[in-house]
From TrEMBL:
Region Disordered, annotated ranges: 1-26
Domain Thioredoxin residue range list: 11-150
Keyword Transmembrane helix in record: yes
GO biological process, one term: cilium assembly
Keyword Heme: no
InterPro entries (UniProt xref): Thioredoxin-like_sf, Thioredoxin_domain, TXNDC15
Species this chain originates from: Calyptomena viridis
Superkingdom: Eukaryota
Signal peptide: none
Name by which UniProt lists this protein: TXD15 protein
Residue intervals passing through the bilayer: 178-196
GO cellular component term, pick one: cilium
Length: 214
């Protein structure tokens, strides 16, 4: 696990701007806010290995969902967890989902998740913006959502002890980064193949076999 790098702007229309002048501009994503009446507990939903993200995103709707790609053994994901857990209370009219990127590798590839944690803002089933700040706190997350959607967060929401407990885990768990392991094995195999291939070509060059005999 490693810290999220600055990725290529795959979503140029809604790229995050570093300054705070967005507050005076029109929202970049016009989100349809859900009716929060009757909902007593606003919490984050974590997808298990058998659940597909696309089943939770309605392509025919303009409502917005913030999706977190994480891994339970990444320390950056763990430090982000309590802040992300508090977001549903700050924005009750939006939806918040999280999924283990190691269990949903096809989605990670589809949406360019080359490192975790990775946060994407969806409108319907379409990704609209990516959170690129290295400072991942409740305040920077609230600023990101406001700059993109124009929806203001509840001012009385803070990170509590319950947010440190879950639902997103803030304690590291031991595990194997299979994606990293596969990358290392692939690179080692490629280097070995290239070395053997170069050695084979060398014997085909005229004069090389004579030098060896001498």
């Amino acid at each position: 696990p490693r810290e999220q790098p600055v990725l290529e702007p795959v979503l140029p229309a809604a790229a995050e701007e570093p300054n705070g002048t967005d507050s005076a501009k029109a929202p970049k994503v016009n989100c349809e806010e859900r009716n929060a009446t009757g909902i007593e507990r606003f919490t984050l939903q974590i997808l298990n290995v058998s659940q597909d993200l696309m089943e939770f995103l309605n392509p025919n709707s303009s409502d917005c969902t913030l999706v977190l790609f994480y891994t339970p053994w990444c320390r950056f994901s763990a430090s982000l967890a309590p802040h992300f857990n508090s977001l549903p209370r700050a924005f009750p009219t939006l939806r918040f989902l999280a999924l283990d990127a190691s269990q949903h590798s096809s989605l990670s590839t589809r949406f360019g998740t080359v490192a975790v944690p990775n946060i994407l803002l969806f409108q319907g089933a379409k990704p609209m913006a990516r959170f690129n700040h290295t400072d991942r706190t409740l305040e920077t997350l609230k600023d990101f959502i406001f700059n993109q959607t124009g929806i203001e967060a509840k001012s009385d929401v803070t990170v509590t002890e319950e947010d440190w407990e879950g639902p997103l885990p803030s304690v590291l768990t031991k595990g194997i980064d299979w994606l990293l392991l596969f990358s290392v094995l692939f690179l080692a195999t490629f280097v070995m193949y290239a070395t053997l291939r170069t050695e084979s070509i060398r014997w085909l060059i005229p004069g090389q076999e004579h030098e060896h005999q001498e």
